[in-house]
Write a structure and sequence with these properties.
By secondary structure, the protein is of the alpha+beta class. Helix content is 46%, strand content 21%. Strands 1, 2, 3, 4, 5, 6 and 7 form a 7-stranded mixed β-sheet that branches. Bound molecules: adenosine-5'-diphosphate. Residues 136-137, 140, 176, 178-181, 185, 189, 194-197, 202-208, 231 line the site of adenosine-5'-diphosphate.
Length: 259
């Protein structure tokens, strides 16, 4: 059992390094190839639409170039650039990309509850995580359905989601109207290389990457799904306030010397 555990950990490490990169790259290539294919079909009939698809292919290629730039930067140890990010704004900025990646038969709705809260994250990494979830949703809906991404701010009590410590979190919920999952599948989805997709289509690395991202951010991920009822994956990331925690609550000033 000890050896089995070590084997799992080893697979996880390999999965996160090489496979994670391959998976992201694959998603980007899917955007490029999909865009070019649609452009090829429409170029004679509808040049404007074809141009839009070419733009989306270009964006996918730019993302792939950005990924390789970051890989190169890895050896200089500055691959991740964390900064305060407001999830509502980040997701709103992705809505064109999401529309194009998911195709016309999927309605994409982006909703922001408007807390204005920030979290500390690498912007590109968080975008890739959301793109992973959206591509999974597309696959589960067989290209047709409703994708809703809802961002909010929320206070969680200890253990409310997984093992989360009590505190304030921003949440990003990605919800689809797809096939849903059986309890047996739900139990295994975060394992590296677990996939129910045909060979060549699924790598089984998307959700394990999502999992390691939230863990690294000291957040949590919640999964709600049932066969035939769709799936909601919710990320909880610690709120970033930009202030160091005060050592202690300062004593209140007596009213007569208050400014
Ligand atoms: P991959 O997408 O390459 O299979 P993932 O780790 O992203 O790898 O997903 C693992 C498995 O979890 C999928 O093969 C699928 O069975 C299931 N899954 C993930 N997301 C969804 C979803 N939104 N709806 C239904 N099933 C899903």
């Amino acid at each position: 059992q000890e050896a089995q555990l070590r084997q799992i950990q080893k697979m996880e490490a390999i999965g996160q390094l090489t496979g994670g990169i391959a998976h992201d790259f694959n998603n980007m290539l899917a955007v490029v190839l999909g865009g070019l294919e649609l452009a090829r079909r429409q170029i004679a009939l509808d040049p404007t639409a074809a141009n839009r698809h070419i733009d989306s292919a270009t964006e996918g290629a730019n993302r792939a170039a950005e990924l390789t730039r970051r890989l190169l930067a890895f050896s200089r140890e500055d691959a991740l650039h964390t900064e305060p990010v407001e999830p509502g704004a980040l997701v709103a900025g992705m809505s064109d990309l999401l529309d194009r990646t998911l195709g016309d038969a999927v309605t994409v709705t982006v909703r922001d509850a408007g807390s204005g809260w920030h979290t500390r994250a690498d912007r590109h990494q968080l975008e890739n995580v959301i793109l992973n979830l959206a591509v999974n949703a597309r696959d589960a809906m067989d290209g047709r359905g409703q994708l809703t991404i809802t961002t909010a701010g929320t206070a969680l009590s200890h253990g409310a989601v997984g093992a989360c410590p009590a505190g304030e979190y921003v949440s990003i919920a990605v919800s689809d109207t797809g096939s849903g999952m059986t309890p047996e599948v739900m139990e295994r989805v975060f394992e590296p290389f677990f996939t129910t997709k045909p060979v060549g289509k699924g790598t089984g690395l998307g959700l394990s990457q999502v999992f390691s991202f939230v863990r690294q951010a000291e957040g949590e991920v919640a999964l709600r799904s049932a066969p035939g009822e769709g799936t909601t994956v919710t990320l909880y990331l610690p709120r970033h306030t930009g202030q160091a925690a005060p050592a202690a609550t300062p004593p209140a000033l007596p009213a007569d010397i208050a400014p």
